[in-house]
Amino acid sequence: MENTYGLNLKLKIYGGSHDEKIGMTLSGIPAGEFVDFEALAAFMARRAPGKDAFSTKRKEPDEPVFLSGFDGNVTNGDMIEAVIYNKNQHSSDYSSLYDIPRPSHADFAARMKYGDKVDLRGGGHFSGRLTAPMCIAGGICLQILARKNIQIAAHISSVGKINDESFDKVKLSVAELDALRS
User: Fold this and answer.
1) What is the pTM (predicted TM-score) of this model?
2) Which of 48, 56, 83, 147 could share a disulfide with 21, CB 3.0–4.6 Å?
3) Could you tell me the pLDDT band of residue 7, with boundaries at 50, 70 and 90?
């Protein structure tokens, strides 16, 4: 199973939580873009599982292996493909999901849509584990955008009755404003 996102940049993610590997392809990135793989690893570490009581107990290193798209640390204009090898899957822990789906998971909906052959081990293709390939693509794009002085940011403004403080949505320097006017 694979999912595809985007038009100018096209991201495909593939694999499942308990497959040998999960991965992504990203096309549309031009040649000549430098990617700091250490910065990408730090970005990926933010989403890695097993860090706190609210995340999965499964500990997996999110270490992408790049199969294409780079000459050293520089994009070569080809489609970027990266995989992450799964190393800590316990498939037998999920054997009852076909009869008793987990609340707040995609188990029931996936089985109804895709039938008895859908892979539900660890959530299969619907696992949070599939956010890792998305983060590879996002981390690469954020680096490219940062060099163009474009920042992407988000925050949760409220949860229930708890509100976050507002922030400046756009904060431009005088030089940046002058450049926009000319």
Assistant:
1) 0.71
2) 83
3) confident
